[in-house]
Specification:
Blueprint (H helix, E strand, L loop, with lengths): L1 H5 L3 H15 L10 H13 L6 E5 L2 E2 L2 E2 L2 E5 L6 E8 L6 H14 L4 H5 L5 E9 L2 E8 L2
Parallel strand pairs: 5-6
Antiparallel strand pairs: 1-4, 2-3, 4-5, 6-7
Amino acid sequence: MLKALTTGDIHTFEILLQEFLVNSISMYDLPSNEPEKSYHLFVVGLLILLADQYHVKSNRESGLGRYDIMLIPQDLSTLGIVIEFKKVSSQETLELAAERALNQIKQKQHAQELKSLGIKAIKLIGIAFQGKQIYLQAEDSN
């Protein structure tokens, strides 16, 4: 799963993350008042396994606001990653929430920290969730 993420194979990452969530967590692990924090902490915990290759940052400022998660590669020639989470609102689909997350990354210029370090390959990922269902939308930063 983590290899798929760090090589930019976001489709495989999404499939494996979804499978992991369905098989590993309970709906009771996701508090109804702040489920975004649960997903955030869960994914940060998984990403810590990349500490030998990446600096894993959470809730830091970059650009015009604060991103959810950033993976800063120790080898600046490899892929940098910015992740934003969004809970599906009552008026939207998983796809629309993921698009909203991705748009926030772009509008708030969250990839700026990676760019300022000279990282050329940057993946922006919006992750939407509803209960244990997720949907990812990703694109390369320009």
